[in-house]
Input
Amino acid sequence: METNYEALGRCKKLSQEIETLKATRQRAFADLRGQLAASGSPPIMSSTVITFNADEAYKKLKALEATDLELMQAIAEYNEWAPQADERLIALKAPRES
Output
């Protein structure tokens, strides 16, 4: 089989983009988790109620959603080129249910 240099180049570029997007998505998850944890409940016997900034949580969720969408698109494009570049496909796995 003849080497498809265009496919190889696209896979290389997309691999780098995917790694960057994965890191960005992980930071977005951490930001959202941190914001939600900061709004958690104080001790039960406390007379303090911690406020919850739903707008801020929504902004963080939307940022996470946008990054995730961009990541999934990059993976789909990579997986289209991968067979032509003789590269392994990137597998997607659903999260475990709690």
